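Good morning,

Attaching, inline, the backbone tokens for the sequence recovery test we're adding to the shared suite. The designed sequence is right after.
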């Protein structure tokens, strides 16, 4: 199936071939299922499993379901395109101890966080284990949104789930307090300075203007990265999508790395400052994301997370750590600085590179 998927991404096969392969996999799973189920062993726990809302893929989910059943975990299969409220009902009405969410699309990953938020709002988050999986999902993403387990395959899922259920049962029986809250980082300015930025000032998200003319400059491909990266246009999303993302946030911070250059032809000096800024931004963004802050980082220049981007042959390897530049999002950097009272031009002999972060306080 992976081979068929790679051929599909390269436009070497048809959607119908992918569907036929998927059906073959499901038929094979049904044949294997009776051979894997345990005989006459006490149940380890009860789990609900489903592909999150907006995601119709079920092969990975079915593999994990079968492997969980092999560990004598009772399964409530919620199917595909499952709303957060349905996961909550599986816990409150069916008594599930383990909540398993699957996502094969980067676009549906935010639904996983909504499931966790719904469990927390219903007051049941502390008495369940949440396990996430799927091609675009990473361990860092799971930790950031407050999940308990990340698994890359069905075999690891079964082992981790069994261990987590036994630990959960032990804690509940002993009355040990279990807290599963997302952490937050409040002093972002101080953190930015610690990470090497020269300037860190407040940014008002309401001042941001997503401009078509900026995207037109991107399309001119002077940077030689247009249509060559998931973090760059057109793959990174439309202006309307970025405006919708930004509208979620109430606060922001502008960060700059300022350095000395000999003159306007000192390209080596400019590149050195740019490299320092990229390091500062990666260090800052990783710490903020690890802390679980609800945020949207926007960098300067092309994403350098990977040596070579998988675009367009395969999904991004690190979708939750892929950063688009402010320009790629449609922002005119000098205008953003001016609208927020931050210098953009520091005069002759100095160069500044600007990044930003939008966030919500917990």
């Amino acid at each position: 199936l992976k081979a068929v998927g790679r051929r599909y991404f390269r436009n070497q096969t048809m959607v119908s071939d992918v569907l036929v392969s998927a059906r073959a996999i499901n038929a094979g799973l049904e044949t294997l299922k009776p051979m894997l189920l345990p005989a006459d062993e006490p149940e380890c726990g009860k789990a609900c499993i489903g592909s999150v809302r907006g995601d119709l893929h079920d092969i990975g989910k079915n593999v994990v379901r079968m492997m969980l059943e092999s560990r004598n975990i009772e399964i409530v299969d919620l199917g595909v395109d499952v709303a957060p409220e349905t996961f909550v009902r599986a816990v409150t009405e069916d008594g599930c101890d383990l909540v398993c969410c699957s996502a094969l699309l980067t676009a549906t990953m935010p639904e996983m966080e909504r499931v966790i938020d719904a469990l927390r709002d219903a007051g049941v988050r502390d008495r369940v284990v949440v396990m996430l999986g799927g091609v675009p999902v990473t361990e860092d993403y799971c930790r950031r949104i407050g999940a308990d387990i990340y698994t890359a395959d069905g075999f690891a899922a079964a082992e981790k789930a069994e261990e987590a259920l036994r630990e959960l049962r032990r804690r509940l029986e002993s009355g040990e307090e279990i807290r599963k809250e997302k952490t937050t980082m409040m002093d972002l300015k101080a953190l930015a300075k610690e990470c090497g930025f020269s300037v860190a000032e407040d940014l008002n998200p309401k001042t941001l203007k997503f401009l078509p003319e900026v995207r037109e400059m991107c399309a001119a491909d002077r940077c030689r990265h247009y249509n060559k990266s998931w973090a760059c246009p057109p793959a990174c999303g439309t202006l309307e999508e970025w405006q919708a993302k930004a509208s979620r946030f109430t606060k922001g911070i502008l960060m700059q790395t300022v350095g000395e250059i000999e003159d306007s032809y000192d390209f080596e000096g400019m590149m050195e400052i740019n490299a320092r800024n990229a390091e500062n931004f990666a260090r800052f963004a990783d710490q903020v994301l690890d802390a679980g802050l609800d945020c949207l980082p926007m960098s300067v220049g092309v994403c350098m997370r990977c040596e070579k981007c998988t675009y367009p042959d395969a999904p991004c390897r690190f979708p939750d750590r892929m950063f688009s530049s402010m320009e790629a999002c449609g922002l005119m950097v000098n205008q953003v600085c001016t609208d927020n009272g931050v210098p953009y031009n520091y005069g002759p002999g100095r160069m500044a590179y600007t990044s930003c972060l939008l966030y919500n306080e917990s």
